[in-house]
Design a protein that fits this description.
78% helix
Length: 446
């Protein structure tokens, strides 16, 4: 094992500083892959309802307007789950909070196969939303705290890119199973997979070393983790107490040094998640109304997510070189321009060209959306990181709630109204990002 950073016995061991200075070990990367497995399921589960809406409208004899509250209640659960999950993660640990959230949304999704009415469906999606919302802040925090600072944006963004990656899987699974096995097959898979991943996390996922830093009763666990990372620590090591913010909890996010960036970050999350979930929830219906088959409409959302994976990876690689400000502003501006172009086309686009354009738009939107988690992890210190990420994500999910009704309304206005709404949301995101002060710097200037 590579023993990095020897420390004198009279010098307190700063866990965060030593992880930042050490090599990014293979074991740390394996931890990030474990966390990523939960995020993939988040992306898969989040989009299931959007895929089945056209089928439910036909089989249940319902309408888009009647199903809009189902989306809204699911996203309302995410708002509560994200804010509460961050607080739980900072208080009781990122590991148990993440495992519990995966079990919760998996159980609710699996039980959805028994739903036979819109109210039953809405209740189960609300419960699933609690788990989905709680998973993200704890996953993002673990990603940030198992990577050295110079690789933090890369680690978080590559982890969060698993959201559109899960959507890609959902699109292909929906295209394959919906015509032959019905909508229940998707929710059955969405219930089984989280149970398996939760078991894997329970067996293999370690706790955050920065969370363990000021918990003396778990000192042996902390030392074992640091040794796995490759740091020299033993029973005689004296650990430095993590730097505490002036205030903890939600109030600590609004102290004078953080207040403006918190408000702007929340605005960016809100606007970006509004349009992201407009695509997840209503794009299959838009494409179906435009004449595509159910399978083609599902593939349309899959291509949006494929583009999102490519865009998010590109952002993850560019941010360390150029800083988050330049990269995120460029991606947001690209999203605005592409949405305006799609609106101008007014649906008169061949199917193959449409799929390619949706992939490009997905690249821009998802690059910004995934990078927001990395930006939030950079803005907030360790003791309030899960709370900060969770609060920003939770407030952003209000945009997802509103997207349930905005999406249903703009569909009535047709193709151009839909994409003009996407352009407006990305423009608001662009302005908020431009005003944030604490962007992650480029590596060469860090």
């Amino acid at each position: 094992m590579n023993q990095n950073t020897p420390m004198a016995s009279d010098v307190p061991f700063d866990i965060a500083a030593n992880i930042d200075a050490a090599a990014w070990s293979g074991w740390q990367k394996a931890v990030i892959l474990l966390v990523a497995s939960a995020i993939i399921l988040d992306g898969f589960d989040n989009q299931l309802l959007g895929f089945v809406v056209p089928v439910l409208i036909r089989e249940w004899g319902t309408t888009r307007a009647a199903l809009a509250p189902v989306f809204a209640l699911g996203y309302a659960g995410m708002v509560i789950g994200a804010a509460g999950g961050g607080l739980v993660g900072d208080r009781f640990g990122r590991r148990p909070a993440l495992i519990a959230s995966v079990l919760l949304f998996g159980a609710a999704t699996g039980l959805t196969v028994l739903a036979g009415t819109v109210p039953q469906l809405a209740l189960l999606r609300a419960v699933a939303g609690l788990g989905l919302g709680a998973a993200m802040p704890n996953a993002a925090t673990l990603l940030a705290e198992y990577a050295p600072r110079r690789r933090r944006s890369l680690a978080v963004t590559l982890g969060i890119v698993c959201i559109p990656l899960g959507g890609v899987g959902g699109g292909f699974v929906a295209a394959a199973l919906l015509p032959a096995y019905g909508w229940q097959s998707l929710f059955l898979i969405g219930g089984i997979l989280p149970a398996l991943v939760a078991l894997l996390l329970w067996r293999l996922l370690p706790e955050s070393p920065q969370y363990l830093a000021d918990r003396p009763a778990r000192r042996a666990e902390l030392i074992a983790i640091l040794q796995r990372i490759g740091l020299r620590a033993d029973g005689d090591t004296s650990f430095a107490a993590p730097l505490a913010p002036a205030r903890t909890g939600l109030g600590g996010l609004f102290t004078p040094p953080l207040r403006m960036d918190t408000c702007l970050l929340w605005t960016a999350f809100f606007a970006c998640l509004l349009i992201t979930y407009m695509v997840f929830s209503w794009a299959p219906t838009l494409l179906s109304d435009a004449g595509l088959s159910i399978a083609q409409a599902s593939l349309g959302v899959a291509t949006f997510n494929i583009g999102g994976v490519v865009g998010a990876i590109a952002a993850a690689l560019l941010i360390p070189a150029y800083g988050s400000r330049r990269v995120m502003l460029a991606m947001a501006a690209g999203g605005v321009l592409m949405a305006l172009g799609l609106a101008a086309a007014d649906g008169a686009i061949p199917a193959g060209t449409l799929l390619a354009l949706l992939a490009i738009e997905g690249a821009f939107i998802n690059a910004v959306q995934t990078s927001l988690y990395a930006l939030a992890s950079h803005i907030y210190a360790a003791r309030q990181r899960a709370t900060g990420v969770g609060a920003a994500s939770g407030f952003g999910r209000n945009g997802a709630i509103i997207s349930s009704f905005v999406g249903a309304a703009v569909l009535a206005g047709g193709w151009s109204a839909y994409f003009l709404t996407l352009a407006a949301g990305m423009a608001i995101t662009l302005m908020a990002l431009a005003l944030i002060a604490r962007h992650a710097p480029a590596e060469r200037r860090a």
